[in-house]
Amino acid sequence: MDPTPSSASPFDTVSGALGDYVPKGGAKTVDEERAPGGGGEDDGGERILGVVVLGRDLRISGANLDAAPFADVVAAPGAAFADLLPPGDVPTVTKRLLRVLETREAHVARVQRLRRADGSELVVSMSILPAAPPQEGLTVSLIAMAKRLHLYASATAIGTSLDIGETAQSLAQSLLAWGDVAAVNLDYAVWTGEAVTEQAQDRIRLRRAALVPDRAWPEGYLTPGDNLPREASRLLAGAVMRDDVPQAVVIQDRAAIERALDDPQLVRALVPGNRPVSVACIPLVVEGPEGSPGPVVLGVTEIWRRPECLFGATELLDLQELVAKTARHVDLARQHQREHAQVLALQRRLLPRTGSDTIEVASVYEPTTPDSAGVGGDWVNSFPLPGDRTALVVGDVVGHGLGAAAAMGQLSMEARALLSAGLGPGEVLERLDETVTLLDDTDAGLAAGYSALGSTCCIAVYDPVDHRVLISNAGHLPPVLVLPDGSVETVATQPHPALGAEFVVREPFQVHEFAAPPGSLLVLYTDGLVEDPAASIDDGIGRLTDVVREVHPWDDLQQAARRVVARLSPAEPLRDDVTLLLARMVGRRSRDTATWRLPARAATAARARALAAPLLRRWHLGEPARDSALLVLSELVANAVRFGGGPVTVRLVRAGSRLTCEVGDTGNGRPRLRRGDLLDDGGRGLHVVHKLTTRWGVRWTDTGKSVWAELEG
Fold it and tell me: I need a labelling partner for 373 at 20 to 30 A (CA). Which of 311, 325, 493, 505 fits?
């Protein structure tokens, strides 16, 4: 019975996929295979198979490279397979070899170059296959490819990445089948994600994106990352845009090249070395946007080789075909880069900037790179709140791409606004829960088909005076608290479903309070940091606990955050975004704060002034500022007694030149500043507070409310 596609071996898969693209005809001679371009117009020839057997140490244990194209490819037993590769390819190929060893999943049809003993290189299609049990190790099949086969394999391999640099590098490596040196130069706008819509030569800016092979280049020669001189950019762009039509340009000898460049500096920058050379310049062209006058050139490729091997018409057609296919992938990568930059800019803006004198914060965000927009919906934030408090927020929005980024930005900004308006963590999560449900019902302009249902969020509010933290959690992983004595605990709250989970019985979001003495370290994170397919999530949190226990109070917090992520991140490419926030509690010194609990009586305002006056003098407030503070305090206490009821809590906090007065009571009415008649007694106290303070507001508590006001001393 013939094998079905699902039962075919990896080798059969490779052979079958490539067989249809091999021209029928006689094998080329060794000299013809070595010469760039094959030395003529005839592209006939058959593929030749070679095999190298590797042990688990990636050293050669056997080889069959007797076919003519593999002449001078030395695969000596005991030698490292890496010795057959160009130095620049060793890390990538070694990673592929190790992955096949680990997973026993074949890696097929990689376009690869092999080094010959004479310094030349051979282009092959390389497949890495696991050895059949009970043998261990790998079998590496090598197919010396005819040009048309190489063209097909290259065009297939180049479109596998949405990274501009990787796409350019893949193109340059493929172009080596036609030359000795290949370079790819891209318009600067491609790198920034901008739309390239015009081709005026005075705006052309090219940057070298890729250069192969990997070797030491002469001083002054342009290498990847270098910007081409403006004269070189105009010259290349003008050469390929003759008669306003992008065309290939071939210059067959060095003397003609030097005459065209007409500048020794340009010759050093563009010509690889001092030997005789010829060059073919092929433009990367895409169709222009609707309404544009014609095609758009994204960049220019250069293929350099010895002048005795002339570029033939068939070769130029092959080169143009390969470059044209690559241009579409470059344009897709440009669009991806633009989306990636936009979303990443949004993500970065949400990261904490700096801490304060009461709390130190550090964060690390490492996005995964799926084929969507390159970043996901993980976010962390920290920001000051009224009353000298600090909010710490971490969230994980479902999915990746622009839809997730838009939802993440909306939830983050809403959480900040609600917390700044005085709502507690539990109340904020209730409103975020409603927002997620609303987004799913209306789409709210998000990407089609995207849903934020199931997103998670954890909010903590740190009070540096009481040295306590309020926390509420909506389906997020529990924070980790490292106490000053080195003990570590997870801050577990009552389990609550994620945001927008309407299919469960709704319960209020629990608010948990715990002590965080000065020197404590609070760790907020997302699941990408602790998830491991081979272990449970509890094991991942346990590893995190062990690592953060080693963060010392005198460590630089940002460096410590990077160290934690480095130790916990998987060696493989990230499956999910990794986000970490470390918050070291410093607290407010006791000599800079004062708190009194007073009965709700008519004389309480006078009593508060009597307690505060000597303290303000010790704090060296000037007389005008002291008088203003006492008047504001008196009005706040009087309002609390009149409208709030119950005991009144008075708190004063000094932070540099800023003074915060906070008065709490058991009432739930919101003080409002309103216009009144001249003879109206009601509301005058708030007008006084409003005039004398830089800002004031209300914060809601479990027992009522607190009205706070800030003054400059």
Answer: 325
Specify the pLDDT at position 385.
92
Residue given tokens 């003495």 in the structure block: 517
Residue 241's pLDDT is what?
62
Phi, psi values for residue 191, rounded to 5°: -65, -35
Please state, as a whole number, how many other Cβ atoms lie within 10 Å of the Cβ of residue 623: 9
What residues does 393 pair with on adjacent strands?
Answer: 381, 459
Sign, CA torsion 92/93/96/101? negative
Task: List the one residue out of 276, 348, 267, 303 whose CA is nearest residue 182.
Answer: 303
Tell which wins on pLDDT, 480 or 406: 480
pLDDT at 604: 92
List, as one string, the DSSP characters of 503-561: TS---PPP-EEEE--TT-EEEEE-GGGT--TTS-HHHHHHHHHHHHTT--TTS-HHHHH
DSSP track, 277-295: -EEEEEEEEEPPPTT-SS-
Cα–Cα distance for residue pair 330/340, rounded to 1 Å: 15
Three-state SS at 236: helix
What is the SS3 string spanning 151-195? Answer: HHHHHHHHCCCCCHHHHHHHHHHHHHHHCCEEEEEEEHHHHHCCC
Q: Can you tell me the distance from the alpha carbon of 633 to that of 596, in angstroms, rounded to the nearest whole number?
A: 12
Both tokens assigned to 158: 């180049």
pLDDT band for position 454 (cuts 50, 70, 90):
confident
Cα radius of gyration rounded to whole Å, the chain: 34
Angstrom distance (rounded) from CA 446 to CA 410: 11
Please tell me the distance from the alpha carbon of residue 701 to that of residue 713, in angstroms, as a whole number: 28
Contact between 311 and 140 under an 8 Å Cβ cutoff? The reply is no
Rounded Cα gap, residues 533 and 574, in angstroms: 12
Please indicate, yes or no, whether the overall pTM of this predicted structure exceeds 0.85. no
> How far apart are the C-alpha atoms of 220 and 259, rounded to whole Å?
19
* Most confident of the ranges 184-188, 573-577, 679-683: 184-188
- Answer yes or no: are the C-beta atoms of 187 and 209 closer than 8 Å: no
Residue 518, SS3 per DSSP: coil
Dihedral sign for Cα 279, 284, 285, 289, please: negative
Integer Cα distance of 685 and 705 in angstroms = 17
pLDDT of residue 504 exceeding 70, the answer is no
Write the secondary structure of 356-416 as one string of H (helix), E (strand) and C (coil).
CCCEEEEEEEECCCCCCCCCEEEEEEEEEEHHHEEEEEEEEEEEECHHHHHHHHHHHHHHH
At residue 457, the pLDDT reads 93
